[in-house]
Amino acid sequence: MVEVNALGKACPLPVIETKKAIEELKQDDTVKVLVDNEIAVQNVMKMAKHKNLDASSEKIDDNQFAVMIAVTGVGEKSEVEEEVNCQPDRRGKGTVVVLSSDVMGTGDESLGKQLIKGFVFALTKMEELPSKVILYNRGAFLSSENEDTIQDLKTLEAEGVEILTCGTCLNHYGLAEKLAVGTATNMYEIVESMMTASHIVKPS
Fold this sequence. Notes:
204 residues; alpha/beta; 6 helices; 23% strand; elongated
């Protein structure tokens, strides 16, 4: 494994140093890139995708992230050299999205599940993203069992959106070991986040 330490380095250095490490490989290997912000994660992941390389990201702590890139086809050169673009921070200051159910609206349950999937997906496409997504009660299923919404929540997390799921709710539904994105939280943090939010979005 080759490690690129890009902690404390501003865009476009993390991408440039990662590209250099990939190009200098003499055999197929994994490149681990350490960065200290979510925007750098997104930029490195975007570069890997452009090169058709498998990549995944992991949040180590509040100030450190790791991007793992599986490099295959060493020696092959892309005919098109991509531009290095610094992705801006798209998070809206103080906007919190609250999801309290794994369905949206009342009536047909299957329709409600389809609607909530569409809602979370639409969040990833907004020009301005929320600063946090809070999930409680049956909303906990969206970050632990629903593969469609888990992937979209991971997309939001990669752009710096905090994904917080009620720990009591995870325990109640037997989902504590299944949380797949974000972190478990408590009612104090949920109340504090909602009290200090400038805008709360809650689908009903």
